[in-house]
Amino acid sequence: MGVFIAIGVVFIVKLFALQVVDQEYKEQADNNALRFVTQYPARGKVYDRNGELLVFNEAVYDLMVTPKQIADAVRKDTLHPFDTLMFCHLLDIDKASFIERMDKAKKESYFKSSPFMTQVSKESYAHIAEVLYRFPGFYFQTRTVRHYPKSIAAHTLGDIGEISKAELDKDTEGEKYYRRGDYIGKSGIEKSYEKELRGKKGLKVMMVDVHNREMGSYKDGELDEEPVAGKDIYLGLDAELQAYGEQLMVGKIGSIVAVEPATGQILAFVTSPTYDPNLLVGRERGQHYKELQADPMKPLINRAISGTYPPGSTFKTVVGLIAMQSGSITPATCFHCSGTGSLPIKCTHSHGSSPDFANAIMNSCNPYFYESFKATINNPKFGGIKEGYRYWKEMTYKLGLGRKFDTDIPYERKGNIPDCEYYDKMYGGQWNSVTIRSLGIGQGEVLVTPLQLCNIAALIANEGYYYPPHLIKCFGDSTAIPEVMTTKVDPGIDPKWVRTMKRGLRTVFSGPHGTARRYELKDIPQCGKTGTAQNPHGNYHSNFIAFAPEENPKIALAVIIENGGYGATWAAPIASLMIEKYIRGYTVREDLEKRIMEGRISYKNER
Amino acid sequence: MNERNSIIGKVDWLTVLIYLALIIIGWFSIFSAKYDEMHPSIFDLSQVYGKQLIWIGASLLIGFIILLIDAKFFNAFSLWIYIFFLFSLFAVLVYGKATKGATSWIDLGAGIKFQPSEFAKMATALALAGHLDRLDVDLQKRKDQIVAAVIVLIPMALVLLQNDTGSAIVFVSFIFVLYREGFPGAGWVMAAGVVAILLFIFTLIWSQKVMYIILGSLLILAVVYYIVAKRKGIVKMLAVFAFMFVFVFSVDYAFHNVLQQHQQNRILVMLGKLDDPQGVGYNVHQSKIAIGSGGLTGKGFLQGTQTKYDFVPEQHTDFIFCTVGEEGGFIGTAVVVLLYVALLIRIIILAERQRSTFSRVYGYAIAGILFVHVAINIGMTIGLVPVIGIPLPFLSYGGSSMLAFTIMLAIFVKQDANRLNIL
Questions:
Q1: In this prediction, does ipTM exceed 0.90?
Q2: Which of A7, A10, A19 sits opposite B333 (nearest CB)?
């Protein structure tokens, strides 16, 4: 009898330890019988400024696997032996690939599901789903991929892809949001508005049996979380203008950036060469990405923000504005020009020997702006060359050069405006305005991105201020866009000097010697400045900044055509056509349009 | 008073109530373990819970009939009953169907399968009681000792031949009876058994070398003690140690060559030497998860996920205790354990008050059988005993075991009710 009582006591003690004291088994029970099914929200759609659909979602199916359940099933269920061969055949993979995928999944988690094959096509899905019951441990998760009905603005719209290890490691948002296999914006607005576009994942807690069959909702869905759909986004982009710009740029390397001066919204964001955004979607994404990466023309680079170019004469606007603002010159100031015999910088244009500001800008007189630059940094009020240069650099920074705007465009580059220390180091502390004279005409060390150049055009169009250029117009749910994009920036240039500059830029089209006079339109008063930039890569870069109409400008832009020669040859007509297209809605200069669209510039392949 | 009323009045209702409580708990547990939303009625005869109800009904009917049969019948026919089931054990060996490695079933047709080994325990208890009840039988006599041993060993051997180790182990429980009835050396055998089990376990855990060192040290201490205290019997003591050394020496060999692979694995899992929750340790691991996840009060009737969704294998037969643990929590398991302890104690109390040797021996025998079943089955589900496939009396699903245990208990209750009629 003692034995009975003893065993009873032993059992009760052990049961108490097992059931009441030890908590581990409760967790294991949940792992066993509960499946946490992620509910993916629909990613936000993207529209252009007029409501044209640019990006939407298409359903795809991810095949998920829970390795433990396969092992369980293999051991227990002899009725349906796991037919690896048939399974591989269904998915059109070989055995080695099957093993590799399984190993990867096992490494991820033995007990939880992870992706076995992502983005199975609709046809394969229908095929496999029918017989999936024979493969315990596998199930389908529906997800969506991006689709781009217009096939434009690849770099602007960006792409999404499976989250990388580095991105996973960086995911520190509370309890980690992302899991392996999740999709995340990789570039463009998909990246900058990832949080808004993705929405919020939901969760469904399902009870499953040992064969992983769903047996119903756990606790009547008490723990479930509904997914929150992503926000739609309206871009400032004008789809028609963007498409037109891309057409104009065919066969040329370079970029067009157009903004609405009154808001800073980007109207067109063209980089060339470009690609069809639909290539970077679905299962072929990796393959296509590799091909694009290997292309010597580097189509993946967004030259509008990542290309840094010498601005050439377009930079004379900046030099002139700073010179006037600092009181170093007035619009009436004249500097001597000896044409091609000028020293230390020769002039490439023929005009009167002592131009005033208006003449100098119309004719793009090199000596005039070299002298203006010199007058600025040598201005006695700064008390020294270095102090003068620091002021000058400070002003360029305020004008948006040598820095990023940090709005919603990922991978911006700063360009380059060297600082005093750079020259000190280079010239051993012995340098002056003559040493750095190239800056006065936008050459030498100075490098700008097309986006920065466009912003200068917008600033002049606005007569003294700008809004940081950005892609978004508004969210679909009307929530506010980040303040930085709606905050007016005043670099501190007196509007009267900007107006002087604006009048000067008008004469570039309208004046008898204007460098872009060939592209004047009677009904649209355009303003602009050509640039023909020397560069180490061959022929001159053809540059142009412009805005129109002169009063209440609707569009400001910058065009850079690599190795296009004179600014007036390619960049100016492209800018003018863009202006016409945007303001008029159509173009009348068919011959010009034809010449530009069919024009090809030959590039050395290794570039 | 007619015969019937007098019987009902004299029945030990405490035993019957515990029995009824256990079968009802078992029935609901089976319902919960195998619950199927397509068949939500506990009376659905197409499901195991419905079938269990049939077995319960049949058992109650047969149990009631036994109470009506003359108590002397079982003593008188004990030998014949025993012989009948010995033949049925033979028949299993010849015609039986193999399930899970053991050949212990006879298909009677109409979907009814019959497992003689479940009944053989009861029959052996009857035969042993009948043998010891005979006036000319004296357990001090060599001949009667041999007969008693043979009565137990024949069915045990037959069950072993069926490869049903679990049921065979149950026959070891008869040693309790023999001990109670003064079988010379039964106490020694029990002690030796306990020592052997301990040596076996420790040798597996610590290796032979360590055991030699421990036994050697103990031997030296014992020898010193015997010499200093000038005790007699030093030769006997040395012999015991010699046996222990030989035993330890042979453990490895026996473990690897006598036991089958799955038995070795189950023992290693129980000892924690083998951690393989996905493989051989799966049953026990899942069983512990199910019971452990029940907590203090359990998840509630039909709310268990582990047993209902088949994570625990054999959840309605050998592992039915998991459902009790998961849905009833610690309170549920404690109640069931206490019910069994109470039943066992009650049987011993009743056995002790019997006037006839037959009834007493029989009582002890069935207490031993029930005890071994309960200890091994519950011990197995909570990982204290290696996995041995024997049912939990009155709870596990199964017609043969339900009928056999009911008949076994009913015969004893009848004997007890009739005790005053024995002079």
A1: no
A2: A19
